[in-house]
Amino acid sequence: MNSTLTQVVSFALSAGIGLLVGLERERKPSAKAGVRTFALIAVLGSLAALLTEATGSAWALGAGAVCVAGSLVAAYLQDRESIHDDAGTTTVVAAIVVFFLGAANYYGYRTLAVALGIGMTALLYFKAELEGFSQKLTGQDIRSMLQFAVLTAVILPLLPDRPFGPYDVLNPFQIWLMVVLVAAVSLAGYVAWRLTLGRHGLLLTGVLGGVASSTATTLVYARHAAAGAQPVAAALLVILLANATMLVRVLVLVGVVAPSSLPRALLVIVPALLVAVAGVAWRWASASAAPPAGEAAFRNPTQLRTALGFGAIYAVILLLAAWANDLLGSRGLIALAAVSGLTDVDAITLSSLQLLANGALSQATALTAVGVAVASNLVFKAVVAASAGGQLMRWAVLRAFSGPLLALAAGLWALHALA
User: Fold this and answer.
1) Residues in contact with 307: Cβ distance below 8 Å, sequence separation at least 6, in sequence order
2) Are 326 and 167 in contact, with CB atoms under 8 Å apart?
3) What is the rounded radius of gyration, in angstroms, for the C-alpha atoms of the chain?
4) How far apart are CA 74 and CA 115, in angstroms?
5) At a CB cut-off of 8 Å and minimum separation 6, what does 28 contact?
6) Tens of pLDDT along 167-223?
7) For a Cys-Cys bond, which of 97, 351, 366, 388 suits 222, CB 3.0-4.6 Å?
8) Cα angle at 94 between 21 and 6, to 5 degrees?
9) The model scores a pTM over 0.90
């Protein structure tokens, strides 16, 4: 392709980016720039980049950006009636961004320019939804997001990325990376649960409860059933959904930390997941009540104390798992998985996968530990729900959990049969 044709294609693509953003701005009557104006602004960005390249000076880019911003600001000031409805800040900033996207496209960053253009259009289009989302967030939700930013952007980069301690398994960076991973998954469910509880019913409550904390969801809804605040069928449905989601969560952790082990992990977990989903479908018709709103079932998953606690537990289990495997072989690790999995699946799952990645465990041993931890956790929650749910819920819970546990045992048998 010759240089002239290349430049033509580049300018056409810039115009397309401007047209896309302009189509969204055209929907707003008070905006002073629409389809044609944004297309011209993007082309102007490419033209300024061309002149900058030809002259070896950045004056054209700077002057072009000033002209674009100045023209739109002048248009808004001339029509003061529109300022009452829209100060025009978003449109002016969008125009400047489109100008530089045109320049970036000319310099060869085509994929990035197109992706940013599409993302910016989506951001402008979903204004009402984003404003509604922000208004529903509580101060606690904002603090959770800020605390997650501290965990990720402040603490993580400061930690050394090299092994320490016995068996060389204590890598501070890797340990905190697992803290960030678990906090990210929990935060997503925590915020979504806060925003949607009581509006989308039992299905969403159970799923989001499983993402945030399946143990807390199990305990809270068992208590609801015992107190008569929730029908037994509805409470049981939420509990089953939360624990089915926990199984999916384990698979997600395996896929992120040890993707090569995911096919065998599916062999272990999916049978239990299918049985759990079948149980949910069977009980769906009889569970028509909406969940009660107003009770915060979950702790903030990004508090520094919570994060440090999980990091410490993860590090201890990582060290104990290496020690148990070295001293007692796979049986020691499985025993540790059974004990630690009673209250927390994430720590032993991530520890086993980390040892697998380091070559200290075989795939079969690591996934067996994960499966045993999940089984132990399901047994623990069945006992919790049966105890907290009272006589009406006790046998229903035990029957509901027995199916996934048997299916999990079948999955572990299949794993070793194929090993």
Assistant:
1) 151, 179, 183
2) yes
3) 28
4) 30
5) 86, 91
6) 676 778 877 876 776 677 666 656 665 565 444 456 776 777 777 677 777 777 777
7) 388
8) 60
9) no
